[in-house]
Amino acid sequence: MVVEKTFTLINENGLHARPATKIAELVAKYNSKVMVKCSGTEVDAKRVINLLMLGAECGMELSFRIDGPDADALMTAIGNLINQKFLE
Amino acid sequence: MKKLQGVPVSPGIVVHKALKIFSESIPFVDRFIEPGNVEAEIERYKNACLVAKEDLLKTKDRVSGSIGTDFSEIFQSHIHILTDDTIQADTIYRIRKKNYSAEYAISSVYKKYKKTFKKMGRDHLLAQRVADIDDIERRLLKILLGVTDDISRDLTEDAIYVAHELRPSQATLLSNKHVKGIVTETGGVTSHFAIMIRALGLPGIIGVEGITKEIVEGQTIILDCNTGLVILDPDEETLLQYEKLHKQFQLFEKTIISQRMLPAETIDGYRVTLLGNIEFPNEANAVLQNGGEGVGLYRTEFLFVDAHQLPNEKQHLSAYLETLKTLKEKPFVVRTMDLGADKFAEVTGSEQERNPFLGCRSIRFCYENPDILKIQLRAILTASAKASIKILFPMISTIQELKWSLEQLELVKNELRAEGVPFAEKIPVGIMIEVPSAAIISNDLAPLVDFFSIGTNDLVQYTLAVDRDNKKVSRIYSPSDPAVLQLIKLTIASARNHNIPVSLCGEIAGDPIFIPLLMGLGLTEFSMNSHSIPFVKNLIRSMTWRNIEEITANASKCHSSEEIHAVMLKAVKKIIPDYFSE
Fold it and tell me: Which label site among B147, B229, B463, B541 has the fewest CB atoms less than 10 Å from its CB?
């Protein structure tokens, strides 16, 4: 199953090291493949360094494409994480 | 004796010997290895990664115990980057195919990533990413080269530690008991490091240009973290003065901190309201912790920090709701955007101005770009459905400007009504009185608004026509100038005439020297930086209405700012001697 959804980053410091780590660790817990796109660049969301390379700042959009058996649940979890500002 | 100025990150005064922390680059040669040693070199690299990971796990535990999990999480990020498959494969490839030494391979791979970050841009957030990569690289190189510069191990003497810059990996140093203060040459107030210093309440000053060059190892230095002043090699007199000050201040601080939650009233029961100024939603908590009764000025400029992209309604709203969550029903005043056009040249295509302070800034900039104001007003109104919140328009200088601003508010209200979005119909609206013309016509402005807020910083600058950052004229900049005080009086009289409240939110609201006179002129509400609240409260609780009347009467006989300042200083020194340095 493939699920696609776009979220806006609302935490003040954007996708810096700690939020990127939280996303990567969340993705690692599931069995789906996650690609994330930001201003034209698409990367594998399992790697912190990749997420950092997106240079995503507050207010920018992240488009996720999740492919796998638990795609729905993972998308919800990612959305919660982003909308709760990564619980920073 | 030499004085240097920096940016204070947490209050306090310390006098100590200075020791330098060395964190210069680690020297190594771009070395090639013999093809026969490739496998051994790869082993060396893998081994260094394992050791580094162990180190990181240990540091993470230590920091999470001593500073908090918020800060220890950064080491988890470092572990991820360190053990990243692609980075490791790339490094091994360089050793195997190009015969690079492990050190050379590591630094060439990391360099590639740092370059990409630097290319992306401009701001401190990216600089932080580069600093993270740097930190991981250094950790690996140190292990490979056998260099031990775990600084916290070397700190065996009580001292103020001086460094060019500090890295996240050096965070453990902050919980070392020998560290009595920190000074750095670089660093922003919002860097990881500054935040940690503040969280620990360690005296610290950052951004002190030239400090690492000027400092002599073992020399005595003074950190006045209340003002950001660093004094190197102080003379006998200065030293004595600060040592005494340090002791007094500690005692005094203890007393006033313990009394910060008591009401702000004089000995004879005359009560005023003390509020806090904030720039970030999470600062609202500090206001309450310091005994403030609410937020009298929320400067929303931080929402606009990214000059390339204006904030959307959602971002505004989430900032306001976050603040409201902390404040509940306590006073909360949001000032609409107060920046100059120069900040947005890229987005709005505005031209460079010859005279930005007299140009298109603040409400005038909104007049040119009404959507920026409307988006913000929509968010404030939407938030007003949840809890009480007030709107404050900055830099109003004419009645037309005020009427235009109120019209925009009505337009937005109509929009929301049409959309069925709930909001507080009677949301209070106030204006900043910070341009002399507004003070002069305040009697005409008052019937149109629900409150005034006097902004003395700009009022002083515009009344005396002086730029306080221009050293040649900054002596003229004085909030105790009779002309400024006349305008304050006029504003208070107009507010009384029309029965609306008036508060004061400039820097002097947090300066105990000014409080009695301002109270004597009729002000009952002050909004200041949260760390000033306990000090101002202490003064108020130490005086009587009689003191206030006396100071006001004496000041009214004076004809210059110097005389007025002297009157206030003399009287306030008598009331709270411990607050002052002599």
Answer: B147
CB atoms B80 and A48 under 8 Å: yes
Residue limits of CATH 3.20.20.60 in chain B: 275-392
B74, B132, B312: residue with CB nearest A59: B312
Q: What pLDDT, on the 0 to 100 scale, is given for residue B168?
A: 59
CATH topology of domain B35-145: Enzyme I; Chain A, domain 2 (1.10.274)
SS3 B296: strand
Domain residue spans of chain A: 2-87
pTM for the whole thing? 0.59
Number of CB pairs < 8 Å for A and B? 67
Burial status of residue B188 (CB atoms within 10 A of its CB: 0-12, 13-18, 19 or more) = middle
Which residues in chain A are contacts of B81 at CB distance < 8 A? 48-49
- Position A84 scores a pLDDT of 86
Q: What is the ipTM of this complex?
A: 0.86
How far is B356 from B360, CA to CA, in rounded Å? 7
Question: What is the SS3 string spanning B157-199?
Answer: CCEEEEECCCCHHHHHHHHCCCEEEEEECCCCCCCHHHHHHHH
Chain A CB contacts of B282 under 8 Å are none
CA-nearest residue of chain B to A10? B315
Q: Among B78, B192, B316, B565, which one carries the catalytic annotation?
A: B192
Give the residue from B146, B187, B198, B173 showing the smallest Cα distance to B66.
B173
Q: Is the separation of the CB atoms in B77 and A20 below 8 Å?
A: yes
Neighbouring C-beta atoms of residue B203, cutoff 10 Å: 25
Q: What residue type is B116 in one-letter code?
A: T
Bridge partners (DSSP) of residue B567 are none
Read off the pLDDT band of B561 (50, 70, 90).
very high
Distance from CA of B73 to the nearest CA of A (A): 6
Section B343-350 average pLDDT: 63
| Other Cβ atoms within 10 Å of B500 Cβ, number | 18
Whole-number pLDDT of residue B582:
43
Which of B76, B129, B315 lies closest to A16 in CB terms?
Answer: B129
Q: Which of A21, A47, A58 sits opposite B86 (nearest CB)?
A: A47
Q: Is B505 marked active-site? A: yes
Q: Looking at the domain covering B2-23+151-234, what would its CATH class be? A: alpha beta
Q: Say yes or no: B306 contacts chain A, CB-CB below 8 A.
A: yes
Residue B406: its H or E element: helix B399-419
Flag whether pLDDT at B553 surpasses 90: yes
Q: Where does A2-87 sit in CATH, by number?
A: 3.30.1340.10
Q: Do A57 and B125 touch (CB under 8 A)?
A: yes
Q: Do B86 and A57 touch (CB under 8 A)?
A: no
DSSP string, B267-300: TT--B-EEEEEESSTTHHHHHHHTT--SEEEEEG
Active site members of A: 16
Architecture of domain B275-392: Alpha-Beta Barrel (3.20)
Longest dimension (CA), chain A: 33
